[in-house]
Specification:
125 residues, ThsB__TIR-like_domain, globular, Rossmann fold, transferase activity, five-stranded parallel sheet
Length: 125
């Protein structure tokens, strides 16, 4: 059996928490080639050491997945996590989290993909 790709999910906590929940659900499908450990904060007020915890989780991951919503490109936490991933040499990809709307890619966070099962299996497999 092939080892699953370990994915760190970066998302706009204030606006797009449900996207993280959806991608975790997809990671649990029988044919999913990736796994996600939920390292996100449980509340909106960040812990003092959240950056240390995020960096450690990014180091343990194989790839960083940015879930893109309307305001993600301005979310400070996402921008910090993307910087950490770049510092750690981790590949980064982005998926558009919603069907409708106009979305701006997060700077320096890799290619922007549509969110569908075929794309997820291709980029996270």
């Amino acid at each position: 059996m092939r080892k699953k790709t370990r994915v760190f999910v970066s998302f706009d906590f204030d606006n797009d928490k449900k996207l993280k929940d959806f991608i975790i659900g997809q990671s649990r499908l029988a044919d999913s080639p990736f796994s996600i450990e939920d390292h996100s904060l449980k509340e909106a007020a960040p812990e003092r050491n959240w950056k240390d915890k995020a960096r450690a989780a990014i180091r343990r991951s194989d790839i960083v997945l940015v879930m893109v919503g309307p305001k993600t490109h301005k979310a400070h936490g996402v921008l910090a996590e993307v910087g950490m991933a770049r510092d750690e040499g981790k590949p980064i990809v982005q998926v558009i989290g919603y069907r409708n709307g106009d979305y701006t890619a997060v700077p320096n966070a890799g290619r922007l993909y549509r969110w569908d099962w075929a794309n997820l299996k291709k980029i996270l497999g």
